[in-house]
Design brief:
CATH topology: Porin
Number of domains: 1
Oligomer: single chain
Strand order of the largest sheet: 1-2-3-4-6-7-8-9-10-11-12-13-14-17
Shape: globular
CATH class: Mainly Beta
CATH architecture: Beta Barrel
Order of helices and strands: HEEEEEEEEEEEEEEEEE
CATH superfamily: monomeric porin ompg
Largest sheet: 14 strands, antiparallel, barrel
Radius of gyration: 22 Å
Length: about 350
């Protein structure tokens, strides 16, 4: 009974946070490579950046995650390489999940203003549980009420770490105004179980589609707005097992400054919830700094459905060689670097 209970708890934790860990990062429109690795090669970018995310749970507990990425383009050979490293940490359980991923993106010119970017990705995932933060049955003393610091349960040393390979593929079609993409993750359905002897937990394949459109709201250079003023709408919809996730964002880029709103809809087999958030960003030459906040939400009809608050801050640096030739133009869907 004890073994079955522990297995159920680990299964619940892994399913809740292992399956959903990719969705913790909210800034999909600015970190498109997180949902579609083909974005590493978009417009031959040479860019790097970091992001910090803090997700609030009940009882003041939080999940913290960090994200780093770097992309470099080999223009003469028509391909790009992208590296991103994602790390998630839960202090109350001692859970740490880290996954570096390398992506190869090839560029195909369809016509003068249309490009196709297929890519393949290989990730190496590692999950670890700190068993010193877990409580086993033999640590509880019902007579004295005290809690022993160490456990002799034979299961304790069996749930330390899990390592796995994660394969993915994607493509992205874009012009100077729109993008459309499809990505498939966990193609090999890796086993992420902490205890390979008793239970096998496989990540289901994640299918996702992306779409975006960016248009100029100041085509005649009116003085009421900055010279480069655009609005970008972005969508990412994914299905993974019984989980459905839809992300929408609408952002206005007014020269160096931008602001926007985002909506996130999630549905699992047992419940669903919605997030609404605000984002701001400020660019200065090659740097861009931004922040995002998603408001908490609790369904008044289903009190067990709770959508936590999320805080994100990020910093990116673009070292593309021709960036200085387009000062003030911070469009995110572009093809001018291809030439």
């Amino acid at each position: 009974m004890r073994k079955e209970l522990l297995g159920f708890v680990l299964l619940l934790m892994t399913t809740t946070f292992g399956f959903g860990q990719e969705d913790v990062i909210v800034s999909h429109s600015r970190f498109m490579q997180k949902v579609n690795p083909s974005a590493f090669g978009m417009n031959n970018i040479n860019k790097t950046g970091v992001l910090y995310n803090s997700l609030g749970l009940v009882n003041t507990n939080r999940i913290e995650s960090q994200y780093f990425f770097g992309a470099i383009s080999f223009d003469n050979d028509n391909f790009s390489l992208g590296l991103d490293v994602y790390s998630l940490k839960m202090d109350n359980t001692g859970m740490v999940n880290t996954k570096p991923t390398l992506s190869y993106v090839y560029k195909i010119q369809v016509d003068n203003e249309l490009y196709l970017l297929p890519s393949v990705s290989l990730g190496i995932g590692s999950s670890r549980l700190d068993t010193s933060k877990l409580i086993f049955e033999d640590q509880l003393s019902l007579v004295s009420g005290y809690l022993q610091t160490e456990s002799r349960d034979p299961l304790a040393p069996m749930i330390g770490t899990a390592n796995y390979l994660d394969l993915g593929a994607s493509f992205l079609l874009h012009s100077a105004y729109f993008l459309a993409g499809v990505s498939i993750k966990h193609l090999n359905q890796p086993n992420i179980s902490y205890n390979n002897e008793n239970v096998e937990i496989k990540l289901p394949i994640r299918y996702a589609v992306q779409g975006g459109y960016e248009f100029d709201v100041n085509p005649y250079d009116r003085s009421i707005l900055p010279r480069y003023s655009t609005i970008m709408a972005f969508m990412n919809a994914s299905v993974m097992g019984d989980n459905i996730d839809i992300f929408l964002s609408q952002e206005a880029q007014l020269g160096e400054f931008s602001f926007g709103i985002n909506q996130q809809f999630r549905k699992t087999e047992s419940f669903g919830f919605t997030n609404i958030g605000l984002s701001v960003a400020l660019a200065y030459e090659n740097f861009e700094f931004g922040a995002l906040y998603n408001f908490p939400f609790q369904n008044p009809l289903k009190t067990q459905v709770y959508s936590p608050s999320t805080i994100e801050v990020f910093l990116t640096f673009d070292f593309s060689p021709y960036l200085r030739n387009k000062r003030g133009d911070y469009r995110r869907i572009s093809i001018d670097n291809y030439y």
